[in-house]
Amino acid sequence: MLHDSPTGFDPPFRFDDETGELRANGKTVWLTEREAQVFAALLRSPGDVVDHGTLLEAIWGTRDVEDHHPIQVYVSRIRTKARELDGSGDWIRSIRRRGYVFHERDATLVRLTYDSRLIVTDIDPGDRHFLGWNPARILGTFFLLADGSIPHDNQEQAIQAVQTMHELGILDTDNTLNLRTGDGDVQARRVQMRSLGPRGEFQGLEAVIHL
């Protein structure tokens, strides 16, 4: 297992970054040294975009490399080998002009718990950034990632919208939403929302964002 992967991140495989051994579903494949370095760099920030410069630095110790083609080759080889393990090989997603992101469809990126005023009361895991956001700056504040039926920039309107959805019994959802990132971008992620409290008495909200 990659020893410095984030606390709370439990991928559906076992990876030894020293030997390149990658195991899942009772099968084993071996990554080359370069492939293992790329894979390890992606696993250190699951769910976040890892830019080409970071991957180049992981391999050659410098970002001053104009040709990004080797990264594309290594990622392609990793996908091919991962496909031997789970049949899909879609753990790594390409983000055009930016880099790559590690994701696993059913793995949790972060769990946010809110009180009745939509103040974040708990973040799990709370020891690493997610989608470019710093948990330490979010905890104890009004903070919503999605902007739609529940506005992220007006707390009173957001509370009213959530209370109405709770009373109607439509707050519990499992959808793909466009989420704001810390660098001003937008990323589509699967989000599960669960209302806290009995019908007619909104006590809070739990939101689980998936990789």
Strand numbers in spatial order across the main sheet: 8-7-11-10-9
Structural class: alpha+beta
Q: Overall 3D geometry?
A: elongated
CATH class of the largest domain: Alpha Beta
Briefly say what this structure is.
By secondary structure, this protein is α+β, with helices and mostly antiparallel strands. The protein has helices spanning 33-43, 52-60, 69-86, 135-138, 155-168, and strands spanning 14-15, 21-24, 27-30, 50-51, 92-95, 99-102, 108-115, 120-124, 173-180, 186-196, 204-210.
List key phrases describing it.
single chain, 211 residues, alpha+beta, Arc Repressor Mutant, subunit A, Beta-Lactamase, 2 domains, 5-stranded antiparallel β-sheet, 3-stranded antiparallel β-sheet, 5 helices, 11 strands, elongated
